[in-house]
Amino acid sequence: MAIISVKSLLEAGVHFGHRVSRWNPKMAPYIFGRRNSIHIINLRETVKGLVRAYYFIQKLTSEGGEVLFVGTKRQAKAVIRRESERSKMHYVAERWLGGSLTNYTTIRKRLARLEELEGMENDGSMSSLSKKLGSTLSREKKKIHRNLEGIRNMERMPDALILVDPQKEHIALKEAVKMGIPTIALMDTDSDPDLIDIPIPGNDDAMRSIEVVCSKLADAIVSGKAIWEEKRRLEERKREESTRQSSTVRQQAETSDGSKYATGSTNPAAPKVEDKKDDAKKAEDRKRNRRGKPRPGSGKPFEAKADGATAPKDGGEKKEFSGGPKRPPFKGKRPDNPRRDNAAQTKEQPKEVAPKAETKPVEVTSNMEKTQAEKEN
């Protein structure tokens, strides 16, 4: 199904441009010809621009984007206000305040002031003031409400700007270009298309022409928001299913056997009677060692089994168990421990001293000793 037909554009008078003397040469690709010193706009270019803008706006709003309508001309005020309210988007139908995009923090302060004045009027505190001060505050409230009524709910910067006659809305156009916001404009033959991202050539002075173009763009916003709402609904449903599955898995993990809780039990955390008995039995077994004897300090005496029970000799009284027979002291030679023995040997053995080298006697051969030896011989 076509978005719009050329016949509807002709009936609305979209093809009429300005006088030849007022044209902008950059609009030559969008002009079909001239008649009676008036340029005729090529409606094929109008349909192309409108289709591009339609799908762009639809995709933008289907992802959660916001659009701002701007049209302060007398012919466009009522149309801009009606179509923006129908599509639940923001608009500026009165004077464009300088800095509405580049100085947005100041605009938010003025909106906070508007809420403050409305609160004073609702609670009756404004009526208690003097007549002069009360009239001053009421005029201030009306002025802020008239200029900023359309962007009152705009919590962040818009994702696109729709302009009617960018020649008149040149301040808004420059601010959008400075902030990097895409612009869509219905522009006549006297405008500059270089500053517009998606130009829609057409008559921007006739009310019917403005209404045809703005209604189609509003339809694109409505369809895109419907897609966005469906996406959110599906995401919420998936989130609920995931939380439900995680809760069931957690409940199954908390039970001992992995099965669900009993239907009769309202509190799943309440233990059963059998579980209480098992816990008591485990606590009793924990106080005994592996041989069935109580641990020291448990306070229970030893009770012999019925099969192995014997009467005490010589009529003696039965003694209470005091932890089992004590181990007798060790008498005898301890087994050899190579590590301990080696350590003891290393401690007892002194350090070996290297033997000194033997010194040979030095032979002294003097004349007296030689003569004495000869005599003895």
What is the gyration radius calculated from CA atoms? Answer: 52 Å
**Average pLDDT rating:** 79
CATH superfamily of the domain at 6-101 and 157-229: Glucose-6-phosphate isomerase like protein, domain 1
Q: Record the strand order, biggest sheet.
A: 5-4-6-7-8
Oligomeric state as shown: single chain
Strand element count: 8
Note poorly predicted spans. 260-266, 304-309
In which range does the helix fraction lie?
Answer: 40-55%
Order of helices and strands: HEEEHEHEHHEHEEHHHH
- If you consult CATH, what is the topology of the domain at 6-101 and 157-229? Rossmann fold
| CATH architecture term of the domain at 6-101 and 157-229 | 3-Layer(aba) Sandwich
Output the number of helix runs. Answer: 10
Please give the alpha-carbon distance between the first and last residues.
Answer: 155 Å
The 3D shape can be described as elongated
Which CATH class of the domain at 6-101 and 157-229 is shown? Answer: Alpha Beta
Structural class: alpha/beta
- Major sheet attributes: 5 strands, parallel
Can you describe what's shown?
By secondary structure, the chain is of the alpha/beta class. Among the domains are: 6-101 and 157-229, Glucose-6-phosphate isomerase like protein, domain 1 (Rossmann fold), CATH 3.40.50.10490; 104-155, Helix Hairpins (Orthogonal Bundle). 45% of the residues lie in helices and 9% in strands. The chain is built from 10 helices and 8 strands. It has helices at 6-12, 43-62, 77-87, 104-123, 131-148, 170-179, 207-254, 273-286, 338-348, 367-376, and strands at 16-19, 31-35, 38-41, 67-70, 90-92, 160-164, 183-187, 198-201. The chain has a 5-stranded parallel beta sheet, sandwiched between helices. The radius of gyration is 52 Å and the shape is elongated. The model is unreliable at 260-266 and 304-309 (pLDDT under 50).
